[in-house]
Every structure is written in C-alpha cells, then in structure tokens.
Amino acid sequence: MNRPVYDLKTKPAVLGSHAEAMQAVQALKPRLRERIPQAESLRHLPPDNVADLLQSGLYGVMTPKRWGGSELGSQTLIDASVELASACPSTGWVYMLWAAHMWLLALFPLQAQEELWSNPNMLASSVVNTQGDVVPAEGGFRWTGKGFFSSGVDHCNWLTALIGIKREEGQPPERAWLLLQREQFEIVDDWFTMGLKGTGSKTIVINDAFIPQHRYVSAKDIEEGVSPGASLHPNPVYCAPSTANFTAAMGSPAVGAAKGFLELFEERLRTRARTTTMPAQADGLLSNMNRLASSIAQVEAVHALSLENARRYASIRASTVSLRDRMACMRDQAFAAQSSRRVVNQLWEESGGSNLFEKSELQRFWHDTNAAAAHQGLTWDWIGTAWSKIALGLSEGPFV
Description:
Butyryl-Coa Dehydrogenase, subunit A, domain 1, Butyryl-CoA Dehydrogenase, subunit A, domain 2, 5-stranded antiparallel beta sheet, about 15% strand
C-alpha cells in the first residue's frame, strides 16, 4: 500500500483563515464522495484521500505554527470535520482524529516533538482502549499488550496510547499518554464492520516495546494545562481544556454523516414532490417535509452547540474552567452524536425498500451515522450520568 506519510516530499499548505480552510474542504468533497466505494472495499482510506488531507493543509489546523501548522483551532476543526463527513463519513472520522491529535502531540516534551515533526507529513493514530501492563524501566517504560479501534493506523508512522502506568503496589495506575513508532507494534487486520468501513480502525499488538521518558506525558498535567508542551507554544490553546480542543469535534463526524443523509433525503423528497399525483402519497409527502425541516434544525442546532463550546473554552487556561464545564463539553459532543443518530433513524423509517440495496448512498450514510455515534466516548448513558454527578456534587469526574 502507498503511504503518503512516507511518499510525499512537499510540505503541507499553511491555511491562512477559517474561510480558506472551508474552501479547501469544499474543493475536496466531490473527490471524497467518488472514492467512498474504494474506501469501503479497502477498509481503510484510499491513499489519495490521505494525500489530499495532508497537502491541503487541513491536517494542520491544530498543529503549532512552530511545526508548520496554521493553529486555526477547534472551531475550524469542527466545521471541517462536519463538512468532510458529509461527503465521506469515514474520511471525516479519520480526519477529525488525526487533526485533533496534533493538539495532543504538541503537549509532549520538545525532544518528542522534534522527532515527530522531522517529517512534515507525519501522521499519528491512537488507542485509548488498551490492555497489558505498562511498567517503569530505566530511562522510560515497557509495554506488552493490545490497543483497540486505532482509526487510520495503516497510514501512520506514530501511535499515541492512553495507558495506565503501574507505579506503586496497591495504588491505582497513573493515566498517561505514550508515543510509539510504527515499528514497535503490529496491526491486526480485523476491521470488518457494518459502518465507517473506510476508517480502518484496527487492533494493534505491542510486544515488550520500550518507550523512552521523553515520549511520555501525564494525563493529569494535560488536564491542568501544565504539560511540557504548554510552555513551548505561545497560543493559549495548548494550555486550555482538552474537552474544548482534543475532543472538541468528537461528535462532528456523526453530525456530518447526518448532514450528508439529509442532503440525499431532501433531493429524494424534491423528486417525489414533482412526480406524485395520488392524494394519499401527497399527504405522506407533507409529513416527510415536516420531518425533514425538524431534522435539519436539530442537526444545525447541535453543530452550533459544539462551536459555542469551542468559542468559550478552547483558548483559556484549563485551570480556570470548572470540572462541570469541561464535562459539559463531553456531554454536548455525545448529545450532538446521539441527536444526529435519532434524526437519521427517524427519516430512515420513510426511506423505502429501494434504499436497502448496498449501492444506495442513503443507506451508506444511515449506517455511518449510527456507527459514528457508537463510540464509547459518545455514549449518552454514562456521559449524561457523569455530568449529572458532577453537577450535583456527587463525583470529582473522569479526567484524572
């Protein structure tokens, strides 16, 4: 497989504004839509999609200017993720994660950042659901275990892993992020799914990998805005809450996939409105019109909610943002994803038997919306309960 991370020899474009970023997105959308069958067949993004994301500069909206990024921030990340997912949900999903991780990587020690961005087309996947013991070793750590759902990993030359480090017997593990090189893990080809087929979110296996100390950053330091990288970059986003930056766009691929579904449903409804002559069918069309209007309003509302959280919290010190407000950002991302899922499922009831065929674009966007909303970090029951416990003073929260 061709890997743009190694093949590209030119530096990515540097976007000058939010408007310029959105122009780049619009230019890519037709190509991404055409490549959906290829992405689903490959079960990972086509190399051309990856090259387009890199060379357009869209990948760098959360990357520090010091390393060739634009630092346009999480509002641009949200809007770009929504629009890309409206053309190809798998591309929108992987893009969201890849671009968001540039914020996280900017918080590691300088030596790690120099290693990462020695390749301007660097790509990093991640795992947050991991198994196996991570133990301190001389000069760093050793890890034997597994990680799951590593989206886009086939194309990456680095991996970030959220793990628990065993420090003292009887004490809970310390939550931390580690960096691994591509040569330090194996990829299990197990991504056979009903939705987001093109994300390649595969299992990875680690066998006694050594991770040096400079490729470590404490999750607690990140949440408090005092990570090693926070002092390296003047932009305040790098000492701001992770929920307004790193996970600010988690719900956006579901929102974008729902938007793509709604665009297809609207076109289908427009065609039916022009050709229907039977009174009973005309009454049904009126009901469909009402559902469509309500659905579009709901999707636009949750999109706006995500943007408002980013506007409020993405550029202020994490220490000044309450736990309740940080958790509210997670709550609202889950709400955005689950609202998008409900909207699409409600309209799917009226989509008819012709859309059961695999060639139907409508069914693709239906199953991709549901798949995007299935992420553990977007599950309403536990996130809604976690926020409520914090709001009621019953919990200190899930962050450290």
